[in-house]
Amino acid sequence: MPWNPDVYHKFQSERFAPFEDLLKLIRVREGLRVIDLGCGTGELTRRLADALPSSEVVGVDSSAEMLLRAESLVRPGLKFERRAIEDVAGEWDLVFSHAAIQWVDDHASLVPRLLSLVAPGGQLAVQLPSNHNHATHTIIIEIAREEPFSQALKGWTRRSPVLRLGEYAELLYRHGGRDLVVFEKIYPHVLENADALAEWTSGTALVPYFERLPTELHEPFLHAYRTRLRAKWPESPVFYPFQRTLFSAVRPTLAHDQNPV
């Protein structure tokens, strides 16, 4: 099951809100070399490029479906490439990622590698969901461990790679990041009902399960999921406190400042 831009954009304003907080962390300069990791359909990459005068911005994503939407946004100083986050190389003045690295495993290795892509004097700025312990996610795992889904998935469930807040700060500092900003924020969303919660996760958290399940089990899985969400949230509307982690680090220009203490 490929990523579906239409499903993902059903809650566009809610998903894009944290982008503004991440944008505020950026040290704006002219002429930056910028890479946006996990750019999706490109709308926010364009907004990032618009905020960084005379800069060269490259948005990368592994989804052909998402990048097809981004093609119309290409302009001088802004382009898109199909590439996995793990395969990105080079040296960049700004390594930026909005709601993407939660799909990449082993953050203890990933975050230092992302920081290594930052040129001296440059910056790493990342936002990622950290609400994997919320019932909208834990219920998915519960259902996946039941039959007939468990057998079809061969016992697989997705383990979130997201670390605790302090672990990100320690990783960044240990690998040379300075001027750290690391925090969590709850983004309060009010959705119509429990079915809207299911719609939200069908564009994100459910995708890797549907990639592995046969098509005939997609609807039974969704039915079981909606039923449990309705039981937990019978009211309307539903308050959805969405937790996210944001962090920024600068790579110093002086060699002695880059060495961990």
Describe the protein in words.
It is built from twelve helices and seven strands. It has one domain (5-255): Vaccinia Virus protein VP39 (Rossmann fold), CATH 3.40.50.150. Strand 4 (92-98), helix 5 and strand 5 (118-129) form a beta-alpha-beta unit. The longest helix has 15 residues, at 218-232. Helix 5 packs across helix 8, helix 6 crosses helix 11 and helix 9 packs across helix 11 (218-232). The protein is globular and about 55 Å long. The mean pLDDT is 93. A seven-stranded mixed sheet has the order 3-2-1-4-5-7-6. Helix content is 39%, strand content 24%. The chain has 261 residues and is α/β, with parallel strands linked by helices.
Could you give the topology of this structure?
Layout: H1 5-8, H2 12-24, E1 33-37, H3 43-51, E2 56-61, H4 64-70, E3 78-82, E4 92-98, H5 107-116, E5 118-129, H6 135-144, H7 149-152, H8 165-174, E6 178-191, H9 194-202, H10 207-212, H11 218-232, E7 238-250, H12 255-258
Average pLDDT metric:
93
Q: Which strand order does the major sheet show?
A: 3-2-1-4-5-7-6
Cα-to-Cα separation, first versus last residue: 46 Å
> What's the CATH H-level homologous superfamily?
Vaccinia Virus protein VP39
CATH class: Alpha Beta
Helix content: 25-40%
User: What is the second-level CATH architecture?
Assistant: 3-Layer(aba) Sandwich
Number of domains: 1
Number of helices, where a helix is a run of at least 4 consecutive DSSP H or I residues: 12
